[in-house]
Amino acid sequence: xxxxxxxxxxxxxxxxxxxxxxxxxxxxxxxxxxxxxxxxxxxxxxxxxxxxxxxxxxxxxxxxxxxxxxxxxxxxxxxxxxxxxxxxxxxxxxxxxxxxxxxxxxxxxxxxxxxxxxxxxxxxxxxxxxxxxxxxxxxxxxxxxxxxxxxxxxxxx
Length: 157
Hints:
Layout: H1 6-21, H2 29-45, H3 50-77, E1 96-101, E2 109-113, E3 116-121, E4 131-138, E5 141-146
Parallel strand pairs: 3-5
Antiparallel strand pairs: 1-2, 1-4, 2-3, 4-5
């Protein structure tokens, strides 16, 4: 079976793979699109039978997948700002807040900050009504510390 327009066939299939990649979660179909376009370029310069075209497609797709996936995945995914070091970039860090629900590690408590209620976590127990300093934020969870020893719970005194 010979394709009437093999170059257009491979270009079209490459474009289909690129579009399908937008809906796939694994970042693999992109490399089959690259393989299809490499096959189109190869067929443009050297007319090949269908088996030769399929061989070029398979080899080009797999080589690009294994050689480029790790590098390109990092480029296309971009950089995320969510890690432990970024919790200090929160505008809340350094601010003072009031403890509404006592914090008993490892159980979270609750603080009031800028008129909103936030889940709070601390390494030491902190009594209800105490004033705390926010030392980090991870999403909706605030990491806090007691301002002075008199804010600790009676159990620790």
